[in-house]
């Protein structure tokens, strides 16, 4: 097994390589505006660090969000392209699940990432492996009663300390955690989901209302 994991659903552009026993190389850079520019060089860097070639990869793992449309599609399209070219399966995992998996919190907690527009993408967890609510996007004040008293991880929690006063690491998702969680699921016979994006809301760019199509006569 040699899994290439990547995630661009958050400002972190993160890539890792897992050989079925451990993470053999990883790279993470936080830059919300350069996903497309940073991702492929990070893949090259991780492969070089591990001393492996791309054609040795046996599977791709990609974070499916939730996340903003532009950043998220960079990772998903790259993963789909690698899978098609290499002829290997592409597995999708919730980005929040990888964030939660990397935490060291015992007991119930919340994972939250920045959704912009003064909102967060979030979900509740019974433990680092068990999500108990579907991913959602909300204003922090609107979910204060649902998360009251719970520890929280993620950049979304750090942005809104009034709602998440008990924030913990990690702040950003890592592909190393994404890959490790995928390996654990595969070894348990639980195949990760298909790589379908969790957008949760419509993209910012939309066709205006009352738009008229003008065609030449």
Overall tally of domains: 2
> What percent of the residues sit in helical stretches (DSSP H or I)?
25-40%
Note the main sheet. 6 strands, mixed
Q: Can you write the helix and strand succession as a string?
A: EEEHEHEHEEEEHEHEH
- Percent strand equals 25-35%
Strands, total number:
11
Mean pLDDT: 92
Poorly predicted regions: none
Radius of gyration from the alpha-carbon trace, in angstroms: 18 Å
CATH superfamily of the largest domain: ATPase, nucleotide binding domain
Name the assembly state.
single chain
Principal-axes shape call: globular
CATH class of the largest domain: Alpha Beta
In the CATH hierarchy, the architecture of the largest domain is 2-Layer Sandwich
CATH topology descriptor of the largest domain? Nucleotidyltransferase, domain 5
Protein structure class: alpha/beta
Task: Note the total helix count.
Answer: 6
Protein name: tRNA (Adenosine(37)-N6)-threonylcarbamoyltransferase complex dimerization subunit type 1 TsaB
GO molecular function: transferase activity
GO biological process, one term: tRNA threonylcarbamoyladenosine modification
Keywords: Transferase
